[in-house]
Every structure is written in structure tokens, then in C-alpha cells.
TrEMBL record:
Enzyme nomenclature, EC number: 4.3.2.7
InterPro entries: ChaC, GGCT-like
Protein name: Gamma-glutamylcyclotransferase
A GO CC term attached to the entry: cytoplasm
GO process terms (BP): glutathione catabolic process
Keywords: Lyase
Single GO term (MF): gamma-glutamylcyclotransferase activity
Annotated catalysed reactions: glutathione = L-cysteinylglycine + 5-oxo-L-proline
Amino acid sequence: MWIFGYGSLVWKPGFAFQSSKIGFIKGYKRRFWHGDDFYRGDKERPARVATLVEDWDAHTWGVAYEVTDSHAEESLQYLNMREVVLGGYVTQTVEFTPKDGDQAPLLALVYIATASNPIYLGPASDKDIAAQVAVCSGKTGPNVEYVVRLAEFMRLFCPEVDDEHLFSIEAEVLNIFSDSGGIESPKQNAVLLKA
């Protein structure tokens, strides 16, 4: 079984896996349109986290994790609690294409939050999303960490990919923190990532 991660799963899968591959899925774009009132926000100030929105021309990059049969049930129980019960996501099966062009595409399970979810926040300008991200924090840390870690993953492992939505939100967040004397540059992001 393969599980595709495109948000926090790229740096914090939290389940046992045998191997991982960087690559992409087609037909979806990553958007910070889903609310999170547990991990990165709370009931008063829901955070903005990534989900997938259908777009036939788009590609979303992330990591696919191979889970062995012996760990499948345990991994799915963990992910269903993390992503479905607490996160409001549903599962779909998608075709994942590894970055290494010599490998054939494979089927992977992916978690997607849809507009029918009660904590779905929907579209907003990158500036408004960043303003929300900058002030939210939840059980696993600040919302800004989520954005910074995801942007760092893309720069390190998919440097040829311009994730315009993600990088624009990150830039707006950095501007907010720069104005208040906080995080000032992507170089300082690396310090946050190692914390």
C-alpha cells in the first residue's frame, strides 16, 4: 500500500513505512483552503492547512510512502484519526508518478478535505491566508511552521517546481514577521525547521 502526502505528511508522517518516493499526482492543485481547529489552530482561530482541489492541468508534488501489509492496519488507524476524525479529510485513490522517471506510476491513497466539510474555509487572497496563518497555533505548533516546512520541502526536494500558491503565502507570512521583528528570511526558516 502507498500513501501520498502533500502537507504535513511530507515531513512528519507519524506512521511506520518501508520506503518513500518523491513525486507528483496529476489533476489536483494544493490550496490552503481547509481549516484546522486542532493541530495548527483552535476553535476561536482556525488555522489554514493544505488540501487538494481538482484542476486537470495541475500537478501536486509530495511524498508517497510504502506501507507493508504488517503495518497497514496500524498506519491506517493512525491516519484515520489524524486526518479523518480530527482533520476532516476523506480518502481517494490517485495515480502517483515518482520523480525518478525510470519508475512506473503507482496507485496511492490520499487524504483530501472537500468544501462539504464544516471546517473548510475556502478560497481567500494569499495575503489574507498569510494573515490568518501568522496568528494561529494549535496542539502541534504554530500554523506558520506548517507553511515554512512545506515550502522548505519543496525547495529542497523539488527545486524545479514553482508552487506559486505556497511560495506566495510563505512570502506574505515572512513579510508579516519581518515587520514585527520575527522570522526575516528563508535562511532563518532552516533554523525553525531544525527545531
